[in-house]
Amino acid sequence: xxxxxxxxxxPSPTGFLHLGGARTALFAWAYARHFQGTFVLRxxxxxxxxxxxxxxxxxxxxxxxxxxxxDEGPFYQMERMPRYREVxxxxxxxxxxxxxxxxxEELDALREAQMARGEKPRYDGRWRPENAAGKAPPAGVxxxxxxxxxxxGTVAWDDRVKGRIEFANTELDDLVIARPDGTPTYNFCVxxxxxxxxxxxxxxxxxxxxxTPRQINIFRALGYEPPxxxxxxxxxxxxxxxxxxxxxxxxxxxxxxxxxxxxAMINFLARLGWAHGNDEVFSPQEFCDWFDLDAISPSxxxxxxxxxxxxxxxxxxxxxxxxxxxxLLPFLEKEGLDVATGPTPGAVAELFRExxxxxxxxxxxxxxxxxxxxxxAALVAEQIxxxxxxxxxxxxxxxxxxxxxxxxxxxxxxxAAQRHGLKPPQIMMPIRALVAGTLSTPAIDAVLTxxxxxxxxxxxxxxxxxxxx
Length: 469
Ligand code: GLU
Known about the structure:
By secondary structure, this protein is mainly alpha-helical. The protein contains 21 helices and twelve strands.
């Protein structure tokens, strides 16, 4: 039986969780869920200058909103310093690493000389134990610790997204694993963590492909086989350029604020570079059931606002009205509306779910149920003519006692139109203008049913809607 899957998401808290990061988290999470594995959250906060508590919180909030629950962690690398120091000491003792006393000036000079010769700048191994034998460490220089990378051969892995990737060891420097002040470096901490956390699969952005051979060499030096790697391609903006603020390089939580459902966001992120046949609309559970690494595309995917909006509407249609109403409620409140003064959010959601793409749009479209609107005078003047004003006056009376439901309203509207020699829209449009301030509303009988008798009648006789000959 294969070892149980253990997978981690390891964000650096140097900014919010943007779409690319969220997609990486989603793929890792779904892989763990698909194989009933363990999803570990690790916060890689060793870059003390750029890591912030605010960013950590933003990452946790984004994951919570998307429903990406983790089984272990969050583990903070800053809390694991003693462990990294212990491994550095062990590697020194075993000859896997060594102290390098090269000063920054010397390193710069070496680089310049190499570049002048047209060579790629790289450390020349001068403090490797075999080269430093008998050399006294210079006074006053605090050494860095370097990993002794193999000199020859290749380091290769079968990337689950990109296929076989191979690097020659001669391309790789002896990596600094601890700085002069003793703080361990990024590539080293990742390996220690992945070993200690018994990680079996690493899914991460392909900006890490160049780190992977270095990490694999450290794994092997420490006596461990590296995990399976899957490097996922970048998410590009709509224009095929790197994501910018304009299109998606914003925090995932901004999509929450903008009225998107987390299940739609998951669906959208999942389709950025992954596909399951022709399935376009699916639930987080279906995604977990279907997800595997083989179906990830090796080429970059593009963000697409229209698709996100379409998916959001599809997911709004799928939710039971009452549930959608609960999701809508905070957006009505943010519009400053008192929900107690109008229909239940569930009823509103039922009415609008086919017509709008986001919860904000739904809340805005539903404003007139909770607060009176002032219809545009030009719209009213255009819609109200002597013939339909008379029909509206008659309806105003009829509405006083009419049983207040869709059928009777529908029948009353059609009757009034017929009696006055009008087509039904010639009555329905002016009523829309008067009660909702717009001609584009859902079915008018449904709107009036929800709006209620009193508000309907009061708005039908608004000042300014009289016909002036
Ligand atoms: N902390 C790295 C990042 O945010 C991820 C490292 C990894 O997954 O190995 O890009």
